[in-house]
Amino acid sequence: MQRWSPQRRRLALFLLSFFVLALLLTHCFILTSMTHECLGPGCRICSMLRSAAVFLSQIKIGAYAVSIAGIALYCAACVVAAYRDQPVVVSTLIGIKVRLNS
Predict the structure, then answer these.
(1) pTM of the predicted model, to two decimals?
(2) d(CA 72, CA 68)
């Protein structure tokens, strides 16, 4: 297993902290602006609230995608680790002939 270099680790921590800060500030903005007095169809605060809600929904979808990809990679690594010492069985006619000739 390859270890991360200190630069990559710092970059990962910076991106994680930026991500968490963006989520925290978005939630704080939504909580503080929920009770504003709406000025009508052109209300800037309502527009910003909609944008914040869209941002949170997109982050949620991205987090689900990253989680699913991480689980799939972990499962693939487990399968590869479990079958590392076993030969791959080839069931085509040419594969069988090559295996018999070996």
Answers:
(1) 0.55
(2) 6
